[in-house]
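User: Sporulation protein K-like protein. Structure?
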Amino acid sequence: MAQGTVQVTHTGTSRWRRRTGEYASLAAALEAAADGDVLTVAPGTYRENLVVQRAVTLRGPEGAQGSVRIAPADGVPLTVRASAVIQDLHVEGQDAAAPAVLVEDGTPELLGLRVVARSASGIEVRGGARPTVRRCTVDNPAGVGIAVLDGGGGVFEECEVVAAGQAGVAVRSGAHPRLERCRVHHAAGSGLTATGEGSALEAVGCEVYEVRGSGVQVTARATAHLTDCDVHRTTGDGVTLDTDAVLTLADCRIHDIPENAVDLRSRSVLTLTRTTVRQFGRNGLSVWDPGTRVDANQCEIFDSTGDYPAVWVSDGATAVLDSCRVHDVPDALFVLDRGSRVDVVDSDLSQVRNTAVSVSDGATAQLDDCRIRDAATGAWFRDHGSGGTLNNCTLDGNRTGVIVTKGADPTIERCTVDLPSEAGVYVSAGGRGSFLNCRVTGSAGYGFHVIDGCRTTLRKCRTERCARGGYEFADGGPDTAYDSGPLVEDCTGDESTGLTAPAAPEPVVQTAAQSPGLLGSIPGQRTTEQEPLIASAAAPDPARTSKAVLGELDALVGLDSVKREVRALTDMIEVGRRRQRAGLKAASVKRHLVFTGSPGTGKTTVARLYGEILASLGVLDKGHLVEVSRVDLVGEHIGSTAIRTQEAFQRAHGGVLFIDEAYALSPEDAGRDFGKEAIDTLVKLMEDQRESVVVIVAGYTAEMERFLSVNPGVASRFSRTITFGDYGPGELLRIVEQQADEHEYRLAEGTSEALTKYFTEIPKGPAFGNGRTARQTFEAMVERHASRVAQLADPSTDDLTLLYPEDLPGLP
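Assistant: Predicted structure:
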């Protein structure tokens, strides 16, 4: 057969009618061919746009796969509109507005095609077409790998998308393909995506990896069913469902995901069976919104690489875990927001660094016949409206078995807490809860520890071998109602035959767990730090008077407007004290402040002096400064932020809490950020402890204005904003002169002028540090001076003390 020719074997109903012909072009051969004919194409490159409209076989020569290239300059290289067989061709598409291979009708077979294109899609199936596509490869870095649209279908077997500029496989507009043993990788969008009502994707034995979007994405009422599939090494989430999507995963493996392994919201429904989820950077399962639901049966979620809960259920969503295992994670299960619910049956939660089950913001959790092992906290019901039931569960080897706080009211029935390293059950800060037929054994602390006069019910409970005692009840202090406290019936411990709660609010034992705060002391927190703070609350008067401290303030370089503001505020406080002594009303003065300005303008120094002034006036007990930032206040999971913020307040008791870069608590793209929890806690503590702690929030001017505008509850707590302006060249020179005097250096003739010019020309961008820059400049001059003088054999006093213009560092 000559180069560039097409040999056509014409067949009929009789073998006597069989004949062979040769054609100069593919188009001519296709025009002459009849149904059943076989077109064998000679090796070569064909710049033709082929349209197959008959049930023919179009193939390359035997044993020379890829030797036939269909590569027109534009348009669709290969269009199939019949039940043809297309085999062993190399198809190249160059038109970004058209597919490389388009299947529009019939039930054709595409076998062994190699599609290399920069097209809208590599292979596209539309309408009534139902092709069978086997062992085909698509390399299309400019568009979709395989697109099935407009009601199209078909089966793709052992196919591979090696690159795609968008989705690897896209199913839209009522299409419904089936993928078997396919591989999709190196896609710039999602690996597999199905969208639109009536769209359905089925995948069996497939692998999706190295994609820059989600591994699998199902949206807008589409459905998908994946069996025995692997999804791994994505840049985005492993699996994403949105807007009434329905997905079933059976015997699948989702792993090595930097974001959420599975994220679903907006009334989507996910069913997982015998599926493993591991090595995820955020949540293993992230479930959002009313009507959204996950049902997991015989699944395993483990080996988190991030600091987020393995299962997150919020905003009214529902999750059911039946016979599942969750282990080696920071937190196992977080359910939050009113209407959210989790049901866990016959499941294991183990090797949890923080909290195994956390219920907050009015959510509900129901656990039946579950085992919780080796967690910092087994189950924590955090706040008012949060509750549910733990029934016939075992909590073994946790630091604390169950915590109930802030009005939460769960029911714990027939549960056993074995070998907790602290309390078996801990109730504080207005928590309630009913504990029925429960047992705590081998606790290193108390069995049941109920403080703050919490109205907890204990009925037919038992403690055994609890190191500090089986039961400890401590009230909330003199303001506790007479009828508050636990209700105890038929409870026993191995140290006594029976137990009843105290009839009056007199505490059985007064313990450190009564320290004041938003949550009270939580087991495992740093209570040893709190004791000296409480003991030293009545600190002696400071050594310096307010006049002496104001003198130090006045000695600071620049800051004239700041000094006026602080003096005005100090005068208001002092006159108010004098009016009170004279029997007159004193104006209410809010002492909390906002400091705005660039770094290095003296905000921390002024905050320290302000605290000392307030202490000298008797407004604060000690006046010390506790400086924190976002990292000190915001925890990695719900609840830890409130505790961190409370601890910061405790350290600042009697002094000033200075929050630097406070705007970071409310980032513009907050999402699920826990900074809001820190802000809410701050607002409450600033009100509850307004006489004992002064709060100063500080940061860049524009960012702090945004922070206060989006948090009116915070803004209302502050009396005034003090702006710290940038230092001018003359003020920076004065700081260097002060540093030189303090360290016994002198500026040689011409050095002051050189410094002024240096500070005039230095870039004033984000890295400029004002006073810090001046101090760093002085330190650099001292280093350069030392390098110069060290070369002198017998330096004079002037040599050792004078700083010259050449000692200045270069401009950054």
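The longest strand covers residues 348-360. The mean pLDDT is 85.
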